[in-house]
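REVIEWER CHECKLIST
Item 1: Sequence provided? yes
Item 2: Single chain? yes
Item 3: Sequence as submitted:
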Amino acid sequence: ALTQAEIDSGFTLFGLDFFRQTTNVFEANLPGPVDAGYRIGPGDRLVLILTGDVEQSYPLEVTREGFVIIPTVGQLWVNNLSLADLENVLYTRLGRVYSGVRRGAGATTRFYITPSRVRSNQIFVVGDVLRPGSFRISSLATALTALYAARGPTDNGSLRAVQIRRGSTRVATLDVYDYLLNGNSANDIRMETGDRVFVPVHGPRVRIVGEITRPATYEILPGETLADALRFAGGFTATAARQRVQIERIVPPAQRALGGRDRIVTDVVSDQFQTGTGPALPLENGDVIRVFTIATRVRNRISVLGNVWAPGSQGLSAGMRISDALRLAGGVKPDVFLGQVLITRMNPDSTKIQLRAALRDTANNVVNDLPLKEDDEIRVFSTSEFRPTRYVAINGAVQNSGQFPFRDGMTVRDLVLLAGGLEQSAYLNEAEVARLPETRAGGVTARTFRVPLDSSYIFERGPNGEYLGPPGLPAPSGPSAEIVVKPYDNVLILRQPNWELQRTAVVTGEVRFPGRYSLRTKTERITDLIKRAGGLTPDGYANGVTFYRTRGKVGRIGIELPEVLKDARSPDNLPLVDGDSVFIPRYNAVVNVTGAVNSPVSVTYVRGQPLDYYIRAAGGPAVKADVSRAYVTQPNGKVDARAKHFLIPDSSPNPEAGSTVFVPEREAGDRPPGILASAGSIAQILATLVTVIIALRR
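Item 4: Structure as written out by the authors:
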């Protein structure tokens, strides 16, 4: 696909895109009327209608031999007759049978002949087209229909000399440009069976670029000139410079010289460009016609920027001064800076100088009211431009902490409103204000002090003024005196000590009264929660407890619930926090064995059996198993692994009912211990034991 730059540079071949789009615009209008010049042929179906003395209609099929048979009239030759010719023949033939059929006003029987179905013709499209071949098209179709069926010419095909051949004769030459540019279809003749559409190689082409309506590459015929090419391209745009047009031409082979002088540039200057046409200058194949743009600089203009009501560009008039430009800009705004107005002026060499004026008042009266020149830029300032952005901040027990623009006369109450009001935990007796110090000696960065608050700072109340929130510390009824804040103050709304909403914990599973319980104190523990739930049911499996903590994304915590139930002072009897959950399952008498074993399976729990027992029950370790790192996740969430000891055998954990044994795979590069390595280790251990025994006997 061509880029936009290529399209704008005239590389698009004019007219080809007309045939590339999918449309049915060139299909014949089959249901519509047929003109009198339509020639009848085999395959057409006609309808003859008689009215008057005789009321009758006859469907007439044109036979392969080219005739029709009319009842009571007989056989009638119609092949290659136009509808107008057929009508003349029918006046003669029908008049012999029906006395009322005659021309003129005295006829008592009238007839009407029209095609009810038109035939299809087989035509051929050859030459430089995208899809050359044979096509079946309606007998109403024209040369453009056939050309469109073949998807139009290729990039090498001509649009100016499309030939229509009938037998050995060229019956027409179609100039597609004449149709596209002028809407003229005089040479777009109707096709007949066996006709051939031939698209030859294109003729000379020129490319038109620049400020032209349709930049493209155009095919030109002998005798066409620069004026024709400009007409093809739609003429100049409004921004075209019409003083000259430049032609880049390829030098004819016989005139080329050494040193790369194969192209030349010629500037064409003509008064005819001013009228939108051009001189009748002959063109050559490969010419590039460039139409230049006018200068981008806008003359006779000044601009007013800054603190005026209508900033922007203005036209420069004779004798115009700064005050005149300010009035045209709607005047200065009330907060204008009177001290100085800057005027930037451009010198003839494009350097700039800075001029100055001042405002006497806000009525556009100017001190040193300079006369203006072309391209002057007036800049008016506002006092707010030099004013720093001042703010106040509020945080703590408010809905939306943050900074807010400072306003003269702003109070703490205003700031609380801007912050969306107080939270329910707000301490309504006082707040802390941090203010910039008068002096920063000694490293002081802020001065803090407390200001009184009261219950009037609570803005959400019922219809009768009743406070609808949760209970809290008592507060003065108020309203107290308003506290005015200063720029950069930081107001801290304190929270009530130990204030929080109800905390909850969930206990589910095999307890008598499962549910979500509100915690009564901050020291309530697991045993307290289970007691409130009525204790465990007879089916409850305390050793399989699942204790889960959502706060801080802690997750599951392993605890020894049987020990906790026996002794509330157990370290596992954790204090509860908001969101904790306890699940007591039923007794599960199996042990799950997973990981690198030959048959991962659930094994029946046998009290007192070690880890290795369950690994063997699952088919034993796999080839890549690392049994030394096997571990068990007990039903209460705790994880036990093998413990290695010096001089004595390693200890192995005993899985409990409902636990999961996992055997990991060896790390890459690890090797299983061989027989010799194992024997060497045993020999070292025995030697060490012998040494210790001898030392003890001495």
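Item 5: Key structural point noted by reviewer: Confidence is low (pLDDT under 50) at residues 2-7.
Item 6: Recommendation: ____
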